[in-house]
Amino acid sequence: MYEHFADELKRALEQGRAQPYETSETADIEGWGFRRGDCHNNAANYVRLHADATVIQGWLLPYGNAWAKHSIVYAADHRFIDVTERDDYKPFPFVPHEAVAQFCDVPFDQMPNVVPHYSGRV
After folding, report:
1. Would you say residue 122 lies in a domain?
2. What is the pTM assigned to this prediction?
3. What is the pLDDT of residue 62?
4. In this structure, is residue 121 part of a structural domain?
5. Looking at residue 85, what is its pLDDT?
6. How many domains does the chain have?
């Protein structure tokens, strides 16, 4: 059902439309109540505490064979930051949903949490 969308995510990655971002250290985010694995709420909470920040919704490619919904923030100092603690702190490719939204028939929040990459590993 999402094969075409997965292909467009891959194309966006190949065309350099992935967004580089920084990862957060635990000390940077533990003071405001982040929860591991809860990126959408973590980003929303960060924005509530930092009014000039923006949530950026998109797609993370953590394992090479599936895209996962993910949210990061665009901070007032013009940095893109993942405000969800990561076990290995290794940034994975992230494609903002805005870069591929025209290929999607439903809003981001109605998309599945994971979209398999049908043509194999990226």
Report:
1. no
2. 0.87
3. 86
4. no
5. 65
6. 1
